[in-house]
Specification:
The protein is an alpha+beta fold. The chain contains ten helices and 14 strands. It is elongated and about 75 Å long.
């Protein structure tokens, strides 16, 4: 089992090549994202990849804000969404129409034939901007490579690997990108690095330490690896946000729910459960009275 020290992302750069990269290895984050939720394995695979993607993109943008990565399609997956902030705090959720959890569905069965990947960047001090790309092929690596090529005109090689069992979830992602250069001596740098990435196995990417992966691939080059950035699960729910939602429902509807409660433990109270982390918020009748005290 991969230790919790692997919930980290590393950036790296080549001193002698015009290429940059990132490697992210995750474990404990998934325990939190999958907790209190009933996801089939095929949905977990998609969500796990989106978590990797959100971290790789967030680390690439270098903005103070948040990045949201979503898949919307016409398959068994209704939608999946992962949010990551500039400190690599992540949360994610998925909705699906799968009833046979033991079935081994293909990638295209899950996302459908017309799925899209949406990447929305939310800078703190400016308007958000969004990129959209068709989900192509039979994995999300090709789709993300296509996104970078179309939206930013950057050649990118991406490897995403997932290992899921009933009791454990691990994953790792590797990204290398071409840096802009007009030096003809470096025009083939990216192809050289991408070819080396193709020699890496799933087991190596998931189970080797980040430095071992970089040495295994690029020991003939000078690679500078920067300090690790920790990746953590952080839900955005709060008692205040729940109260805001309750207020939006309206006084009549909220009191109707309270008065019709069949839960003996929560008579004359309202219970809200966060869909992201499963945390329960209990609001007693006096909390609701205070919320609507100035309304007729």
């Amino acid at each position: 089992m991969v230790s919790s020290t692997h919930d980290q992302l590393y950036k790296f750069i080549f001193d002698d090549l015009e290429v940059r990269g990132e490697i992210v290895q995750l474990h404990d984050v998934y325990d939190n994202i999958f907790a209190n939720k009933s996801y089939p394995k095929s949905i977990k695979k998609i969500l796990a990849q989106l978590v990797l993607i959100s971290n790789l993109i967030t680390a690439s943008t270098k903005i103070d804000g948040e990045t949201t990565v979503e898949i919307r399609g016409d398959g068994l997956l209704r939608y999946a969404s992962v949010n990551s902030d500039s400190k690599l705090n992540v949360r994610g959720i998925a909705r699906h129409n799968i009833t046979q959890f033991d079935e081994d569905y293909s990638f295209r069965d899950i996302v459908g034939s017309n799925a899209i990947l949406l990447i929305t960047v939310h800078p703190k001090d400016s308007e958000p901007y969004q990129g959209v790309v068709e989900v192509t092929g039979y994995n999300l690596s090709d789709t993300l490579e296509n996104y970078f090529l179309r939206s930013e005109q950057i050649k990118t090689k991406i490897m995403l690997e997932i290992s899921l069992t009933d009791n454990d979830s691990t994953a790792a992602g590797l990204l290398v990108q071409e840096l802009p250069t007009e030096d003809p001596n470096h025009e083939d740098d990216f192809n050289t690095v991408a070819h080396l990435v193709n020699t890496l196995t799933k087991d190596e990417l998931i189970n080797l330490e980040a430095d071992e992966v970089l040495f295994r691939l690029f020991n003939q080059f000078k690679v500078r690896r920067f300090d690790a950035i920790n990746v953590n699960f952080k839900c955005g729910c709060s008692r205040r946000k729940c109260l805001d939602t309750i207020h939006q429902l309206g006084k009549e509807e909220v009191y109707g729910v309270i008065n019709s409660s069949a839960d003996p433990e929560h008579v004359e109270s309202l219970v809200m459960t966060c869909s992201q982390c499963g945390k329960k918020y209990i609001f007693k009748k006096e909390d609701i009275d205070k919320l609507f005290k100035n309304e007729k």
